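User: Can you predict the 3D structure for this chain?
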Amino acid sequence: MKNKSFRLWDDEYWSSSQRSRSKGRVDIFYPDEKAMKSQIHLVIFPGGGYGTISLEEGIKTANFFSNQGIYCYVVYYRVLPEFYPAPLMDACRAMFLIKQFVLDNFENERSKIVTLGYSAGGHLSGLLSVLKKFPDSPIGNYFLNYDSFRPDAFILIYPILSMIKEYHMTSLKNFLTSIDDLDLRNSLSIEKNLHSGIAPCFIVQAIDDRVSSLKVLNKFIKEAKKYNINSTVLLSSHGGHGFNIGDTSKEFLLHEWPKIVLNWLNSL
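Assistant: Here is the predicted structure, written as structure tokens:
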């Protein structure tokens, strides 16, 4: 159950002609009072191809994990008609504010902030974890300290990993004002920007997914091994794209992945 919301940006950040940009927000879901409280704070980025935000992915996920004792934060970042860098700025801002919220309200130094992103939200979650520098954009002017938005671990559910190869055209066109800048697309592709020191990650995907490329995922896995990134990959033989949480099909991993992820979170 949602307990609190806060805006990502106050009007003071924008000129009067830009006030519509302050609509991004975070909904906080407090843990069930009967559940044993976890040290994990889970930041959820729903998908939607950068054209919309999947309310179901956000709310269902927050309800499940908050019932397990985890504080959950659902981020509603800007999508169309806004383009890059707006979604990534909102993701960075959300992480900055959530980290401050945790620091102010929880003295436990063992608290860990983990991101979980679906599809396009998985793209944002991945970028927060891997980018060493921002492509030419206003983001760098707001966030000079990269530790201010880095998660302690990240979870990608049928993620959009690439903007350059085996990409999802709808997400690409919704994210960038122009798809002609190959250097920018390369710099915003997660599998192209892996390096040592990246936090542990957990990935869930179906082999028959026609949106999130299995070829790119295999490239990610190969590069992760190269840089000694602690990565766990859970592959389902069926499920396609968008199976979400609470799937009731006969495919075991589709309805059991949240429990497997929960065990992984508790091991961090």
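The longest strand covers residues 112-118. The radius of gyration is 17 Å.
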